[in-house]
Automatic annotation (TrEMBL):
The lineage of its organism: Eukaryota, Fungi, Fungi incertae sedis, Zoopagomycota, Kickxellomycotina. Its EC number is 2.7.1.6. Pfam families: GalKase_gal_bdg, GHMP_kinases_C, GHMP_kinases_N. It catalyses: alpha-D-galactose + ATP = alpha-D-galactose 1-phosphate + ADP + H(+). This is Galactokinase. Residues 400-472 form the GHMP kinase C-terminal domain. The keyword DNA-binding does not apply. SUPFAM superfamilies: GHMP Kinase, C-terminal domain, Ribosomal protein S5 domain 2-like. One of its GO terms (molecular function) is galactokinase activity. It comes from Coemansia aciculifera. NCBIfam families: gal_kin (TIGR00131).
């Protein structure tokens, strides 16, 4: 892959963004930088948030996902300052007060502290860890973010990726897109979340007008896929439930627990399939459902838009779904730690080490391996089918009915099998479908945050009105018009990360 050369884009290139508002924003950022640090920034690095159209909680299972980059983003204006100090400020200084570190302290991150600059340090460390180097230069940075925090649109990935772009330029490094994406995914683990790599990959590699089919295994690969062009065209409406789910405080019972359930599920499924030794030799760390599937069929990865290869995915995933039922069907109530340890013939303490509990503790009595595995394999199947419909050349209403149905099934699976929805997300999906959405589902980690809806352009206003009147007016009656427009908006695929120069 080519190295990630800095690119210069005009402001009008930010698809879907309000160009005038963006121009004002960049000018304000540069002016505030000058007022704060005494000179103009050298450059502005930008990385967008994302919305995941389909493929939830399966990036860390090694399966493909289908997100797109959006207009809301993080900007980092920066300039080297010829000292060994790193000074970082935020346009929202009331919420995120200025911080100052010496270059030598930048690798210290305390994940138990809720501190905004931790994400800045993550981005800093991500790049330098990747090249096994210490930082060498002081610099000043001013950040501005428009991705709502904790809303499921990946504010953290936008933040970390934009910081990485700034740091690599200051340090004179040039990582490839894939390296930046992987480094950012690794880096977020320093704040205590055992994250997958979807958000960072799409933030870096996003393409205007296309969603991305992102594969993680055996290597990171992003294929742009266009949504079918229909008349009227289709848009994605994003609706934030405004239920804030903080991944860091809920990780032991939510996000990190799901990661662990899929990891133990992979180990036990391998044993059920009689390939425990084979996967041990494959040396996959961590072992994912995708690795188990590949080893079971011992065939090369398939992912290209060739009919037979798509058919191959579908057949394999269907077989894995049947095996899942056989492997875990006896325990619909879930497994205790002792039961899982016994099934894997290890001591309970050893099991705890296998799932890295000292780094990412989890808290539950029962691990629902059946339901989590059923979600993972069926969701992967839906992602592959979604791409297949997009590339079928069909632009009729039926094709959008099919895409919408896959999104609706994904929501049902997230609610019932993966248990990562919440009543507010379920309600928003129901209201939107009634008002004309073809497909509605949660997007991102869930348990709150955002939902995404596939809506024909001529129904966008109806869907927005239904949600404004029946959801927001009911539960958030004092919401200002401005906050409502941040929570509820239509969007299209936008471009990925880039640099701007004055
Ligand atoms: P968000 O919505 O950003 O919390 C998280 C993970 C993704 C993916 C989704 C679920 C991080 C940074 N991101 O997204 O990798 O697993 O949940 O599909 O943890
Ligand atoms: Mg995040």
């Amino acid at each position: 892959m080519s190295s990630f050369a800095p690119t210069v884009h005009g402001l009008s290139d930010i698809y879907g963004a309000d160009v005038d508002a963006q121009a004002v924003r960049y000018a304000r950022l540069a002016a505030t930088f000058k007022a704060t640090f005494g000179s103009q920034p050298e450059f502005i690095a930008r990385a967008p948030g994302r919305v995941n159209i389909i493929g939830e909680h399966i990036d860390y299972c090694g399966f493909p996902v289908f997100p797109m980059a959006i207009a809301p983003d993080t900007l980092v204006a920066a300039r080297a300052n010829r000292s060994d100090l790193i000074r970082v400020s935020n346009m929202d200084g009331a919420k995120y007060p200025p911080r100052e570190f010496s270059v030598a302290d930048m690798f210290e991150i305390d994940p138990t502290k809720h501190e905004w600059s931790n994400y800045f340090k993550c981005g800093y460390r991500g790049v330098l860890d990747h090249v096994s180097r210490q930082g060498s230069k002081g610099f000043d940075a001013l950040l501005d973010g428009t991705v709502p925090a904790g809303g499921g649109l990946s504010s953290s990935a936008a933040f970390v990726c934009a910081t990485q772009l700034a740091v690599q330029r200051i340090e004179g490094l040039s990582l490839t897109q894939a390296e930046l994406a992987s480094a950012a995914a690794q880096a977020e683990r320093h704040v205590g979340v055992n994250a997958g790599g979807m958000d960072q990959a799409v933030s870096i590699m996003g393409q205007q007008d296309s969603a991305l089919f992102i594969e993680f295994h055996p290597t990171l690969k992003a294929t742009p896929v266009r949504l079918p062009e229909a008349d009227p065209p289709f848009a994605f409406v994003i609706a934030n439930t405004l239920v804030v789910s903080n991944k860091h405080t809920t990780a032991p019972t939510n996000y990190n627990l799901r990661v662990v359930e899929t990891r133990i599920g992979a180990l036990m499924l391998a044993k059920h399939l009689g390939i425990a030794e084979r996967v041990a030799c494959a040396n996959a760390d961590p072992l994912t459902f995708k690795v188990v599937m590949d080893e079971y069929f011992a065939k090369p990865n398939v992912g290209d838009s060739n009919d037979d290869e798509v058919q191959g995915w579908i057949e394999r995933l269907e077989i894995m779904l049947r095996e899942t039922e056989k492997a875990f069907g006896t325990h619909p109530q879930g497994y205790t730690r002792d039961e899982m340890a016994a099934a894997l013939s290890v001591a309970t303490a050893e099991l705890s080490a296998k799932i890295h509990e000292n780094q990412f503790p989890v808290c539950t009595d029962r691990f629902k391996l059946l339901q989590r595995a059923q979600h993972a394999f069926s969701e992967a199947l839906r992602v592959v089918k979604f791409r297949q419909v997009c590339e079928s050349g069909d632009t009729s209403d039926e094709c959008f009915v099919a895409l919408g149905a896959l999104m609706n099934q994904s929501q049902d699976s997230c609610r019932d099998l993966f248990e990562c929805s919440c009543p507010e997300l379920d309600e928003v999906c129901k209201l939107a479908r009634k008002a004309g959405s073809f497909g509605s589902r949660l997007t991102g980690a869930g348990w709150g945050g955002c939902s995404v809806h596939l809506v024909p352009a001529n129904k966008v206003d109806d869907v927005k009105k239904a949600l404004a009147d029946q959801y927001y007016a009911t539960y958030f009656s004092d919401l200002s018009t401005e906050r409502l427009s941040e929570a509820l908006f239509a969007t299209k695929p936008g471009r990925g990360a880039c640099y701007y120069f004055a």
